[in-house]
Design brief:
This protein is 71% helix and 2% strand. By secondary structure, the protein is an all-alpha fold.
Amino acid sequence: MLCKHGVIKDLSSQSFMAGILAAFVGFSSSFAIVVQGLRAVGASPAEAASGLMAVSIAMGLCGILLSFKTAMPVSAAWSTAGAAFLATLTPLPGGFSTAVGAFVITALLFMLAGLFKPLGRAVAAIPTPLAAAMLAGVLLPLCLAPFEAVIRFPLPGLTIILVWAVVARIKRLLAVPAAVCAAALLIAVTVDIDGARIQWWAPPVMVTPRFSPAAAVGIALPLFIITMASQNITGMAVLNSFGYRPNAGSMFTWTGAFSLASAPFGGHAVNLAAITTAICASDEAHADAARRYWAAVVSGATYVVFGLLSVAAAAFISVSPPILIAAVAGLALLGTLAGSLVSALSGEADREAALITFLITASEVTLFGITGVFWGLLGGGALYLWNRRRKS
């Protein structure tokens, strides 16, 4: 397939520009969430920068490989929802090494989901209202950050929200990148940042994985379910909507392999993209659907470049007020939160079970070292099955 389709003559200016735009939107809209998530589970600034670099390069190379392999615009991404989930946690005993062990388990679960079809079907069988409610519960605390930022830093917080709102009225796709630029400018102007503390390059940091049952249940399993339900399956649906039919098992296996490669360096998860896939697979990428794969190839190459420069981005974040960074991340996730709530609560029959899942997850309760995401899905699932049994 690579020899037949992967030729330079298929590249066009349309595909090139669509790929650049997809990478810029994908990276700038959520890199702050990734850094925040890694720091929350115990990563040092150097380890968080390494994780951002590793997952950026891994998803770029994954997108390039899968696009050439299938001659389809398969765009890969980091798990934004997974990073948002990590941002709600606190370090487990063993620190970041324990989190990295969980990342390794998650990657292996991705591969198993691709190779062992019943596992993939089991994830897909999680009721949509419960999966959506779980994701909404994960996102809610982060989506409150823009309003907390206004209270703590009124002028910068309001400015970031205003820029986001104004640009969204003009071009919604560019609203979050504009908010990122506004936040960076405001931080540079209002915060006393020592330029000597900003490190522009550093080698990746290898972290020895440490495995624990609490991390497997509290981090790895929820990260796997969230990423599969909200991103991998969604990414496949987007490709299908444009008429592309790649083998789902192969896609999941490859994303798992690249996740596994990035995990020892702090990368949390690589998955199929939805928004950037839509950009690369649209008519704007090329009139000929058979040549749009180059948009995803260019996007992947751009991700690799961004990954090599991500140390500077992570360093800038590390010396910035965390609430302003969280505010940008929250704005980036508002649309996802809204869609998740609509999906979770739209059906009257399952609304109560979805609400229980949402509330338990959003409460961030931790029992026996296991996070609220697991308990939320367990509690909502139990009520869902009880209601179905009672009606049968």
